[in-house]
TrEMBL record:
Protein name in the entry: Uncharacterized protein
Domain of life from the UniProt record: Eukaryota
Organism lineage string: Eukaryota, Viridiplantae, Streptophyta, Embryophyta, Tracheophyta
Length: 263
């Protein structure tokens, strides 16, 4: 992205050469569908009424992969209503009136501290501490799309409930109990592979996978950030899955798993 700041505002030129705007569908009666795009560099929407705040002094052009160029007419923030009653804010969303879709950039989400994991036809998004934020199944046209309800600000104890970066809620989050946030930095960091492995058991997922699995278990090596995920049918299968993971990595890497950490 090239940006030039002038006295009258910010002139922006975006080169989204990996975004194909014509492949996205838009229901004129429902603007709540958002596409998760790994090729997009920025969050973008064509709906002005999504924004709670917008700076119209930010303007310029965006060029897409098909060679088309459309105008940027602002940049602002959007609130999403979560199913548990909370609200989350997404900042730095570009308003592009001629864009017939809503796009969330996975790259921009990772810059804000989120972790993205793809396996087969599933996509998972986690925040710091590996708390699950979103799980999306790939559609037949190879797109990841999710329905998100845009909200308006509500005051909680005199303050707007916000979060630095993005956070989303769907059926996966309804099963998660409220808790204090993880510290930004762990008290202990491993100095060798598999000295410390983080794990999280997520679910139940609805609908289940074709194999009837309703949960998945994630393992992350603290030192290398190496990840491995397993799908399972029941929570009671977790111990067996850990034994399988431990056996596989110890045989493959000739190293011992020393400690396991879970929330």
């Amino acid at each position: 992205m090239m940006a030039e700041v002038e006295n009258l505002g910010e002139k922006v030129l975006l080169n989204e050469d990996k975004v194909h705007p014509k492949i996205y569908e838009r229901d004129p009666h429902d603007s709540s569908v958002w596409y998760l795009d790994n090729g997009a560099s920025n969050h973008m929407t064509g709906c002005a009424n999504h924004f709670i705040t917008i700076d119209h002094k930010v303007n310029g052009l965006v060029r897409f992969s098909d060679g088309s160029k459309v105008r940027i007419e602002g940049r602002g923030s959007i609130i999403f209503n979560c199913k548990n009653g909370e609200q989350r804010v997404v900042d730095d969303v570009y308003y592009i009136p001629d864009l017939c879709s809503n796009i969330l950039s996975l790259g921009q989400m990772t810059e804000n501290g989120c972790k993205v994991w793809m396996d087969e036809d599933q996509l998972w998004v986690y925040e710091e501490g590996y708390k699950l934020l979103m799980q999306v199944q790939r559609s037949q046209n190879r797109l990841y799309k999710i329905t998100l309800k845009v909200g308006t600000p509500s005051l909680v104890h005199g303050n707007l409930t916000t979060m630095q970066g993005e956070q989303f809620c769907n059926a996966c989050m309804m099963a998660k109990q409220k808790r204090n946030s993880f510290p930004k930095q762990s008290m202990y960091r491993a100095s060798k592979p598999f000295e410390l492995v983080h794990t999280n058991l997520c679910g139940p997922i609805s609908p289940p996978t074709l194999g009837g699995n309703r949960y998945f278990m994630l393992f992350v090596d603290d030192y290398t950030r190496y990840m491995r995920v397993y799908t399972i049918q029941n929570k009671s299968d977790a111990l067996g899955v850990f034994k399988k993971f431990k056996q596989e990595v110890e045989l493959e890497h000739v190293l011992k798993v020393k400690a396991l950490k879970s929330d």
